[in-house]
Amino acid sequence: LRHPNVVELLGYYLSPSYEIAQIVSPYLINGNLREYLWGKPVGMAQLLGFVRDITAGLDYLHSYSPPIIHGDLRPANVLIDLHINAVLCDFGLASFVSGSGTSPGLVTSTTLKGSPRYMSPELLMGDDCTHSLESDVWAWGCTVFQVSCLLRIWTP
């Protein structure tokens, strides 16, 4: 995968016992979007730039062949690079889409995985806890709302 709004994979580490797996990616000095938004004043042009970057990164993943489901899109999983561009990261729940629209070779879990505040209604209320392109779009909408309005979603 190579896109300016998707974090680059530099390598990986797998322990000899196969109990620990880690990926290696560049260090992005400005932290994640959640911290960035509440850490300093941000203008509307910059906010719209973040929305554009997140949209471009997700479009790239969903347009890949086969399409890639991020599975946990939220401001904490968007890094800010040196040039103040948004970069999607944390692909721990990512999966490929098969011809049926679900992740190939994966068993549907009865346990929710991800961030409930950004999960689509069908994930929260249904028996099928399989992430989809559509659930990514829901998470994108929640993220865009939060970025555009500078509001934390689902808080009292």
Automatic annotation (TrEMBL):
Pfam families named in the record: Pkinase
Listed SUPFAM superfamilies: Protein kinase-like (PK-like)
Keywords, alphabetical: ATP-binding, Kinase, Nucleotide-binding, Transferase
InterPro entries xrefs: Kinase-like_dom_sf, Prot_kinase_dom, Ser/Thr_Kinases-Pseudokinases, Tyr_kinase_AS
Gene3D superfamilies per the UniProt record, alphabetical: Transferase(Phosphotransferase) domain 1 (1.10.510.10)
GO molecular function, one term: protein serine/threonine kinase activity
Protein kinase domain ranges (all copies): 1-156
Protein name: Protein kinase domain-containing protein
